[in-house]
Amino acid sequence: MKQDFEQLKEEIKYEKTNSCVQCGYCLPVCPTYATMGKETHSPRGRINLVKMVGEGRITDLSVLEEPMDLCLGCRACETACPTGVEYGSILEAARAAITRRKKFSSPVRTLRNTLFKEVFPSRKAMSFIGNSMWLYEKSGIQKLARKSGLTKKLPSHLGEFEAITPAAVSPQERSSLPRVTPAKGDKKYTVAFFVGCVMDAMFRKINHLSVKLLTEAGCDVIIIENQTCCGALHAHSGELEESKSLAKRNIEAFEREEVDFIVNNAGGCGAMLVEYDHLLADETLWVERAKRFSEKTKDISQILVLCGGIKAKDLSPQWVTYQRSCHMTNVLKVTKEPLQLIQSVPNVEFIEMNDANMCCGSAGIYNIVNYDASMEILDQKMENVRDTKATTIITTNPGCLIQMKLGIERENLKESMRAVHLVEYLAEATGITESPNSVNL
């Protein structure tokens, strides 16, 4: 029994909880504490629960389940914390410990295993989903489903998300991205591009545009074969061992090519990739390889700035605001480069929203599994967006992009406001088209 307890203490990273002095600096920046007003839904409250488990004062881990599930994992608390508490590590360890001991129903367990082990890690499976979305759209089924009201009957509010799903690319376009795309003009760097799983399935056009922006900036771009999902969705859902397995697969795949940087275009993915060294810190054979991988990992905005920025054309006067990705801000610490690129576009007036660093409530699949809590956070965010009077919301993460599109729909702003990924905005500003086979400059 004592051995089991000591093992549990190690699992939940109990020693890391001792860094928390319960000062409360995390409270004002925590979205769930702001909307729910409960100590157990604050960072220090959650840490205290984990601490109580490690001290034997809580023996039933199910007590932790709701507070941990309702955490967005935005990690704004880490940025605010004066003592450097590793909240993200504690959160993921607690979720993993809960998941290991939880008895899921057979259908739920089957669904989790299918998604986490067979779907997200498989580029073929994600490509199939992308192609199926294209067929659903082009065959007329989508139009019929929406007109008949069938989509509104989907469970878990999925009909609302279906209504804002981005247009899919054709199977031909999906297969047209070459393994190596050479730089335009003088080569500055050789980079490997991380395509992601959700980005590859749902936002393939953004991936195409990312490659074009990088080549126009002077980068040889390599699409690494055998790369897989970053593992973020797995780690956030308590499937930590599966996340480690995916990390190892990516490290093996990317280290076969000699590149200057590993580039991604999704804040959530980037945060996971850059922390592979922490994820695999206890594995002697992997920690150094993971460290080299993490050191090379960069957001696309960092590389574009490093290459000298973009060659933007004069756009019609417009007002834009920027929805900051939590993971880019709080984990990657990439805050200046996106703004530098946005503000380099002529005739654009940038308006910073109030509480710009506050999470939008997307957080991976949080807005699906915790819809009501997510929408309460989104509604507050949209009040701040409205106040800017911006016509364009720019994001750097697919979850944020979907959430902002949903916010625009909820606020009936579709006629006066749009949400785009930073890559889409920069491509528009430079005259790069969405077609994977042409660049108009």
From TrEMBL:
Q: Which reaction does it catalyse?
A: glycolate + A = glyoxylate + AH2; (R)-lactate + A = pyruvate + AH2
Question: InterPro entries attached here?
Answer: 4Fe4S_Fe-S-bd (IPR017896), 4Fe4S_Fe_S_CS (IPR017900), Cys_rich_dom (IPR004017), Glc_ox_4Fe-4S (IPR012257), Helical_ferredxn (IPR009051)
* Record has 4Fe-4S as a keyword: yes
Enzyme Commission number, as recorded: 1.1.99.14
Q: Which SUPFAM superfamilies match?
A: 4Fe-4S ferredoxins
Q: Which GO terms describe its molecular function?
A: 4 iron, 4 sulfur cluster binding; glycolate dehydrogenase activity; metal ion binding
Cofactors needed by this protein, per the record, are:
[4Fe-4S] cluster
Q: Does the keyword Electron transport apply?
A: yes
One family name in Pfam for this protein: Fer4_8
Domain (4Fe-4S ferredoxin-type): give its ranges: 10-40, 61-85
- State how the cofactor is bound: Binds 2 [4Fe-4S] clusters.
Q: Which UniProt keywords apply?
A: 4Fe-4S, Electron transport, Iron, Iron-sulfur, Metal-binding, Repeat, Transport
The free-text function statement in the UniProt record for this protein reads: Component of a complex that catalyzes the oxidation of glycolate to glyoxylate.
Name by which UniProt lists this protein: Glycolate oxidase iron-sulfur subunit
The species this protein was found in: Mesobacillus campisalis
